[in-house]
Design goal:
Elements lengths: L7 H11 L2 H7 L4 E9 L2 E9 L4 E11 L2 H13 L2 E10 L2 H14 L2 E9 L2 H10 L19 E3 L26 H15 L18 E7 L2 E6 L7 E7 L4 H8 L2 H8 L4 E3 L2 E6 L5 H25 L5 H6 L5
Parallel strand pairs: 3-4, 4-5
Antiparallel strand pairs: 1-2, 2-3, 5-6, 7-8, 8-9, 9-11, 10-11
């Protein structure tokens, strides 16, 4: 959860997903199908993965504090909802009463659940803070700041490692059913993550991939991107939409419409607090996706200073990302 613009726990999850060998080596696991902020009934899991060799789901929860009541309740809820699998719990430190409670709950549940407690090296905190203070588009390329010596310590004595009861897990096939909306949207999302990896919002798991339109946070509340391979009018588009509360951001961008149109070849529509580029889809889904990704990246580069930093007296951020409008 972010606090005053802080996303340090999410940044840690992005780093661990990009460098999953850190967890794999420490815990002797093989992590595949890694997903961040995966939707699980009533909650979001910081990081989810599958170990297909063990036939086990892996749930990773991170806390940049000493274990507390709120996070304890989340892990307890997760244990209650699981039938079997592995929990990896990272924190700066653990209260003894929390360790004992989690161990007792698992042992009395009769479930084949293993829980690994990992202590985070405090050396990464300063660099997490540095990342959190960077321009949002510059964080991903600097994640290696967290690649310190021994970033985590496995608390073997405190952990509970149960014999794995294999679960039937279907290995994710990276082929896409482009005839279905869900498959085409999966292809689009992976293309966005690959091409525009520095836009961290894309790394979060998306629900409702069967929808005609996908939405992504643009950097502040009431300000979102929308993208569609084809809507009900058979139009493909990328759109940046502002609420009435943020209409002054929209108006400030519209004042630079001439520069915007020059950058986008004159195809941008400004209307009703929305900035959009629309076109008829190509026969090929791949070609439609390629154009959407190109438009989306141009929008992110052009408008991110506005969507992230418009209300902040922080000229340095605008200078740091000089490619913006």
């Amino acid at each position: 959860m972010s606090f005053k613009g802080s996303e340090k726990e999410y940044l840690l999850s992005v780093f661990l997903s990009k460098n999953k060998e850190i967890l794999e080596k420490e815990l002797n696991l093989t992590l595949e199908n890694v997903q961040l902020e995966k939707h699980y009934p009533g909650m979001k899991i910081d990081m989810y993965a599958c170990d297909y060799n063990l036939g086990a789901e892996v749930f990773v929860e991170s806390l940049l504090l000493k274990s507390n009541k709120a996070h304890q309740n989340k892990v307890l809820k997760l244990i209650n909802m699981m039938d079997k699998g592995i929990i990896v719990y990272l924190a700066l430190d653990f209260q003894q009463k929390h360790l004992e409670e989690l161990k007792q709950v698992i042992q009395t549940s009769g479930k084949a659940i293993s829980i690994y407690f990992l202590k985070l090296n405090t050396n990464i905190l300063d660099n997490l803070q540095k990342l959190n203070q960077m321009h949002k588009l510059k964080i991903y390329e600097n994640l290696n700041l967290l690649n310190t010596l021994n970033p985590i310590q496995y608390l073997e004595k405190e952990s509970i490692v149960e014999p794995i009861v294999a679960k039937r897990l279907v290995r994710v096939d990276k082929s896409y059913d482009l005839e279905s909306r869900k498959g085409a949207n999966e292809f689009l999302l992976d293309a966005l993550r690959s091409r525009i990896s520095y836009f961290l919002t894309f790394h979060r798991e998306k629900a409702n991939l069967s929808n005609l339109i996908l939405s992504f946070g643009a950097g502040r509340s009431d300000c979102n991107y929308y993208v569609s391979l084809s809507d009900r009018r058979n139009m493909a588009f990328v759109e940046l939409r502002f609420s009435d509360n943020n209409s002054n951001i929209y108006n400030s961008i519209k004042e630079k419409e001439e520069s915007v149109q020059e950058r986008f070849g004159g195809v941008v529509n400004f209307k009703d607090n929305c900035i959009s580029v629309k076109y008829h889809p190509f026969e090929s889904v791949e070609d439609t996706v390629a154009k959407l990704v190109d438009i989306f990246e141009k929008m992110i580069i052009a408008f991110s200073n506005y969507t992230y930093y418009f209300y902040e007296d922080n000229k340095q951020m605008w200078d740091y990302h000089a490619q913006g409008i």
